[in-house]
Specification:
alpha/beta; 6-stranded mixed beta sheet; 4-stranded antiparallel beta sheet; 28% strand; globular
Length: 257
Amino acid sequence: MQQSDAILQTRGLTVYYGSKQAVSDITLDVARHRITAIIGPSGCGKSTLLRCFNRMNDLIPKSRITGQVLFEGRDLYSPTVDPTEIRYQIGMVFQRPNPFPKSIFDNVAFGPRINGFRGDLAELVESSLARAALWAEVKDRLTSSALALSGGQQQRLCIARALAVQPQVILMDEPCSSLDPIATLAIEDLMRELSADYSIVIVTHNMQQAARVSDYTTFLMGIENRGGQIIEYGETRLIFTNPKDERTEAYITGRFG
């Protein structure tokens, strides 16, 4: 991948929580309109790296970074950058569905409303739900509580909520870990469809999922006293069929981790 194809980049990124290093010296390019998977053992810093891309780590006490995180070439950690604005452009879908205790309609409309959206809100809600493959299932009950939806529907609603503010990037932190296999496949199909228009970064422990949905894969591994580091990065088909590092092969084949 050429640098010009990257929408997000890190350069020498190191993240600390207090005196502890969570990830160390991460240099990575995230491809535009592709799905990038971040894999690795528990505690290696996958979610920490993901949260750096929209400054969610700012909300964690005593966290700090060195190095750079670039979005379209702009340093996300520059003093002139508004983190709230960044979170509209780089949306997040969390491990467990987290709909607001509001109606289905109001969940999707929430972000555009507080962002001062002046267009046709009903049309935006419909298009966002349709893009999240949920419109047909909820169009007759938009005023019903989002909490009454199934787990898989709630996660698609959260994706619709992220899409409604018209981001360029969608970050997904274990988005299927609490879902059944059928709902998981629905989310995976949705990710593939969305990657035509959005750049997606997904953290997953599921090797089969990473192999099925992603175009590129980053393997992180914790190094003693230094936090997570990239062991290998490349096209997913090569990572899973011909890894260059024996630690990568050991992890994806289940020999450790």
